What we know:
Order of helices and strands: HEEHEHEE
Structural class: alpha+beta
Number of strands: 5
Shape: globular
Largest sheet: 5 strands, mixed, barrel
Radius of gyration: 18 Å
Distance between the termini: 64 Å
Helix content: 25-40%
Strand content: 35-45%
Amino acid sequence: MKKAVFILLFLCLSNGYASNAKSETENWCGTYFEEDGRGYIRLAREDLGIGSSECNLNSYQASIKTSGTADIALNFTKNRSTVSKWRKFNNHLIEVRGKFYNGTITSARFIRDMGI
């Protein structure tokens, strides 16, 4: 009986820690591009997991020069037709808002376009 209670307590606590590990909604600054019908954003590696503190061309270029880049998939909705609406931002520096989870920015919302 004690063993079952201990296992149940362990599972409840570990589930609580796992749900707290999800990231908060943050702003992300990077270059938008598409590959195989899916939208991606090229972020500075130093912004992974914490979001972008500032979004302009000079700070983005300085960040990628020092830390490199990472290509992160954007999950807009369950409907992939949304990608066609973002096509006009291809190779533009954009700012989006969403949650970084499992290597993807989920519920991505467009904030602004800084152009090329």
